[in-house]
Amino acid sequence: MKAWVVRELGHHRDVLHLEDIPAPALQPGSARIRVEAAALNFLDLLVCQGQYQEKPPLPFTPGVEVCGVIDEVAPGAGFQAGQRVIALPQLPHGGLAEQVVVPLAQVHRAPEGASPAEAAAIFITYHTAHYALHRLAHLKPGEVLLVHAGAGGVGSAAIQLGKAAGARVIATAGGPEKVETCRQLGADEAIDYRSEDFVEAVKAFTSGRGADVIFDPVGGDVFDQSRRCIAFEGRLLVIGFASGRIPQAPMNHALVKNYSLVGVHWGLFHRLYPDAVRAMHEELIQLYEAGRIRPLVRHVYPFEDVVAAMDALGGRQTVGKVIVSVS
């Protein structure tokens, strides 16, 4: 079978190579899946460079999120051959391959009616946003939710899940096209951070009160500014640091406004609480099948063009999730 393989660490353009490798054999307690679509995540770029916190042994195939059809499955698994599923491959045997063997604990049913590209895009981003907004921030109907990078993968999921929860949603994005995308996703207010001061816009939208929940996958200056427009007893969700700078927070400011700084590490939660993750997945499937959420997929690359897909992702040239069509 063909797979993208990394044999030495470095920039993805230098170290990713499409190779013929042996097809994986079924292991106990696993499913062998014919991959139809793989979703790219920023960690795929980092893992190639050896900069991700988890470092798989060399050689490895990147890709931690796929949709595909089960070719073979261990007995008594609750799944059957021919069933379309979502799976989270475990590195070093990642999903940028024609076939992958995945432990059954990391295999989940795909929503009815979803294309392989949409199904591949629904797991990590929507689970991260759902976990952050509901389990950690306890978002309530009528509250104001500020979502940064609203046209990105996890940001677009947060906008939709916020609206589904009955929140009033403000989104920020860079440029008119991405701002319009946020509006199409359901944001009540969308702000172009390149030309507007989002702090003043949030204060205007909330009559000076500020946002109850802030969803921040950017960090850096965005985090610093967000503290200026958070409501009393608000919750500032630290999703990641796409800006490249990990910010520092003065605790006296948190004390004065009684707001919470909440770290969001979905990956560890996913490993520690698998039953909660499955329950969350069923809720997300119901929302999808009811038409209340839909992954934002505008960039689908052929399997042979994985390097170009990663270029686009790393260059912040994309809207929503980046998908690789494998078969």
TrEMBL record:
Keyword Transmembrane helix: no
Cross-referenced SMART domains: PKS_ER
A Gene Ontology molecular function term of the record: oxidoreductase activity
InterPro entries: ADH-like_C (IPR013149), ADH-like_N (IPR013154), ER (IPR020843), GroES-like_sf (IPR011032), NAD(P)-bd_dom_sf (IPR036291), Quin_OxRdtase/zeta-crystal_CS (IPR002364), Zn-ADH-like_protein (IPR051397)
Keyword entries, A-Z: Oxidoreductase
Enzyme class: oxidoreductase
Enzyme Commission designation: 1.-.-.-
PANTHER family associated with the record: QUINONE OXIDOREDUCTASE-LIKE PROTEIN 2, SHORT-CHAIN DEHYDROGENASE/REDUCTASE
UniProt protein name: NADPH:quinone oxidoreductase family protein
